[in-house]
Amino acid sequence: MYKVFRLALREYLAAVKTKGFIIGLVMLPIFMSGSMIAMALLKDQVDIRERYIVVVDETGQFRDVLQEQTAYRNSNHIFDPEDSSQVQPVYRIEFVDADTSAIITQLGVLSDRVRKGEIHAFLHIGSSLIHPLENPENAFVNYHGESAALDDVRDWLRDPINNHLRRLRLQDAGIDETQIPDLFHWSWVTAKGLLTVDEEGNILDAGASNEIRAIIVPLVMMMLMFMMSMMGAMPQLSAVMEEKTQRIVEVILGSITPFQFMLGKILGGLAVALTSTLVYLGGGIAFLQWRGFESYIPYDSLPWFTVNLIILLFMLGALMTSLGSVANDAKDAQSLSFPAMFPMMIPMFIMVPVLKEPLSSFATIISLIPPFTPMVMTLRLASPVTIPSWQPWAGLVGVLVFTLFVVWGGARIFRAAILMQGVPLKFSNIMRWMTKG
Amino acid sequence: MNALALNSISKSFNGFTAVDKLSLEVPEGSIYGFIGPNGSGKTTTIRMIMNIFYPDSGEIEIFGEQRHRSHSDQIGYLPEERGLYKKMKVRELLQFYGELKTGRSVISEIDPWLKKMDLTDWASQKVDALSKGMSQKVQFISTVISKPKLIILDEPFSGLDPVNTNTLLSSMLELQKNGATIIFSTHDMATAEKVCDYIFMIHKGKKVLDGTLDEIQNTYGTDTLRIRCKNKATGLETITGVENVHNFGQTQELRITSGVDHQKILREVMASNTLLSFEMIKPSLHDIFVRIAESKEVTSV
Description:
The complex is a heterodimer. Chain A contains 18 helices and 6 strands. In chain A, helix 8 runs parallel beside helix 11. Chain A has 2 domains: 2-33 and 209-436, no CATH class; 51-179, D-Maltodextrin-Binding Protein, domain 2. Chain A is 61% helix and 6% strand. Chain B is α/β, with parallel strands linked by helices. Chain B folds into 2 domains: 2-217, 3-Layer(aba) Sandwich (Rossmann fold), CATH 3.40.50; 222-281, Alpha-Beta Plaits (2-Layer Sandwich). Chain B is 32% helix and 30% strand. Chain B contains 9 helices and 14 strands. Chain B has helices spanning 42-49, 90-102, 107-116, 132-144, 162-177, 189-195, 213-220, 262-272, 285-294, and strands spanning 2-13, 16-27, 31-35, 57-62, 65-66, 75-78, 150-154, 181-185, 198-203, 206-211, 224-230, 242-247, 252-256, 274-281. At the A-B interface, helix 1 and helix 9 of A face strand 6 and helix 2 of B.
């Protein structure tokens, strides 16, 4: 085993002693969470130019309330409470009479004004909005703008319009809204966990189900596994291909067996990935403890995470090294890297449905399919629901058997292919090497 | 005792027989030259000795024992295609290869070898900064730094200038003096003639020559007439009984058909040329190599 560890040590040092590794260690999470970081950094970078909105109100009922609400917002909600600097844009609303005989023409003219930059957007309120059942076709509120779907003004208009609608309907029904002071007090449906029983038999109230705990923690674990696979296993494919094409492998095979060679490379990659994991996990835990968010640290999921990560890296390492031995050049390596990434990519694609329903048949079955077990089972285990305790163990047995098979088959392919130059990259060749050695 | 014994080993690839029932005995402490045309099976034979390929049939013995995985630790191997990690520093690389072979530290042996090969100043440089000749010498050190008892060098002199060739040759002789057995393949017949105790030739997977240089030459007899003529020699190819003429400019070598009277050949040469000198010689290894390589028939020995 000394030779295997010596080779693994070389692989490890060759990877971690480079500037690329250090830069990658820092940059990879930044790239992975780039959009979130960008959003956090740019959240105060708001365009505070005035928003000029034209309203075409076919009901004639919203002029006063929208003017009033806009004025209130412009006075109270656009300034920083600490330094009174303006942090949100001023909204200006202009009402125009609806030309019901030529409404399309009118809307077309307004669209041109938006395009010319004279106005920001325009709002078109249908004539039947207050009583939609009378004429559903005209019961609409349309917001027209160049980027209407993502426009903050559209979001802001929702409450003033809907609250006023209810007020108008109550008036029509002859109900005095002042008799119902909490009329517009909306309630949220709060997500809560399950009640528990403590050691003394007391039933404890359920805590609020935390969105960070429910979504971010499994997501982070999954992303961490993905990143570690990219750092620890994926590079093996091109590394073996280079060692093969540069004939280094023949020198090495003069000292050790192909299986030892393969094992040394897998262990080296595993050590690289575990070093990175240690940095990320240690750093993450320390950061959360420092900021007082210790409750978000999923200590109970960490052992399974570690076990599944190691198995995943072993499985992918065997896959990558054997495929690397088949490749004759960089083009072959590139072609092979795509299917080789399936065990990582498929769990990423199905992440959302698994996270939403961790106990569904789909989530259960796919987490027990060996190539996907490490990532999908980790995702399920990190979710707030309780996974039946037999499932992680069943998954572990399955993935261990599969990994042994991959290592065995990979070693046979590796041994047969590693010294072959110029043999075409064919599935039939790979299968022949695996079955016949 | 034999350092290496091959007992009728064969190896085929997809129906093509690369090595065919090859037997060979390499005495301990000798320098054994492997020669043969390109694609004759030299490298396949060496890879089987190194356990990189398994023979389809036959047996390999190392120092009197059936070839076993642990024997690899006693064999230093320099492959035909050089394989060095380009991003590693020379010292680190030698340390790695040495430790991979021996399972122990070889740090103390690195500097003497670097000094011997005039590479001391390059110890801290990365391999990709070295010239081809330097890389070759580094590869050679990596082969012998583990003090192997059997050293196999596949084309060790290719690409080396005469100075570096001599450096490598003297190192090989020193290793032999210290008890190592050396097998090396080469296309340089002159070097093989000068250095090898035994020479073995493989052609189309079969052994076609095996023995000392004298033994090999004796099997061909004294069948070559070397002449030197005034002005340019002419009409040599048309003389009956001359199989082949090698023209070296100042001298010509005529291979005489077995049984033909040499005096008769000389008389015919003198009839059309002014002869300055002549001698009957044994064929050179180069000549023997060419004769075998050009022959369509392969006769195993």
